[in-house]
Amino acid sequence: MRAIWSGSIGFGLVNIPVKLYSATQSSKLDLDMLDKRGHANIRYARINANTGKEVAWENIVKGYKYHDDYVVLTDDDFEKVSPRKSKMIDISEFVDEDKIESTFYETPYYMEPTKGGEKAYVLLREALKHHHKVAVGEFILRNRENLCILKPLGDVLLLQKIRFAEEIRDYADLDIPKDITLKPAEVKMAGALINQLTPKRFSLDKYKDTYDEELMKIIEAKAKGKKITQPKFKIVHNKSKDLMSQLKASLDTGTHTRKKAS
Question: How far lies 155's CA from each of 51, 110, 128, 177, 218, in Å?
Fold first, then answer.
């Protein structure tokens, strides 16, 4: 793996030198954009809006429109914003992980200690495990300030980017039901269905992205000149509006499926 950031974790007066690595990778098929007339590759060009001519990468700069004019920013300008946060993940506080709503979570990264930081790295990891806490900090990556948490994941410290509160939309404009009364029996029956679908042991490993696998079968079939038929699927809505009968039918279906599988 190639490091995408290097710097330090600020843990009180302790400085832990680390490198950051992406913890995820794409499993999607690499599809190219083609001209349907001849299948030539589509090339994206950087066009000057005034001249209509292509602009080379070395002639492209970043700018911000300020009072109808652009202020051009250089690499030095970005580095001047916050030199410390560009090289330091300052831990500002420690919290219980369940205090952070799932809507805030973004990209995960692995953290690796560099020379001289091994012991402090292990100390922070084990302290987080022992106290069941995550560390909250901020740092700059690719000219953007990021809020993050640090948490132990087995032997590694995981950095998880999280969104700032201002980035989360309010759902007040949505038409969410607030005055519907549920019968105790309905809640009990829903709980029975939840229990029926709750495994003794849970692992995400059993879930696989099968879409690309199925798409690859179609690609291979088309490459061999085979005709592909469209599979038929139709959603059949339950005619009964009675929740209890729908839940009972769901439980009966689940029982039948388990017996058939066994």
Answer: 55, 11, 12, 45, 41
CA distance 55 to 43: 14
User: How far from chain centre, in Å, is Cα 102?
Assistant: 10
Residue 86 lies in a domain: yes
- pLDDT band of residue 234 (cuts 50, 70, 90) is confident
User: Environment class of residue 26 by beta-carbon count within 10 Å: exposed (0-12), middle (13-18) or buried (19+)?
Assistant: exposed
Task: Note the Cα 16 to chain centre separation in Å.
Answer: 26
Do 11 and 108 fall into the same domain?
A: yes
Query: Cβ distance 16 to 124 under 8 Å?
Result: yes
**Percentage of the residues of the chain whose pLDDT score is greater than 90:** 50
Cα within 13 Å of Cα(60), Cβ side: 10
Does 170 or 28 have the greater pLDDT score?
Answer: 170
Q: What are 117's two structure tokens?
A: 């930081």
How many CB atoms are closer than 10 A to CB 5?
19
* Residue 60 counted as domain residue: no
Q: What is the CA radius of gyration of the chain?
A: 27
CB atoms within 10 A of CB 96: 10
In total, how many domains does the chain have? 2
- In this prediction the pTM is 0.76
Q: In terms of Cα–Cα distance, which of 20, 13, 25 is closest to 139?
A: 20
Cα 95 → chain centroid: 21
Q: What is the mean pLDDT of the chain?
A: 88
pLDDT computed for residue 160 by the predictor: 96
| Least confident interval from 61-65, 159-163, 193-197 | 193-197
Cβ atoms of residues 140 and 49 within 8 Å: no
For residue 21, give its domain range.
Answer: 5-25+79-167
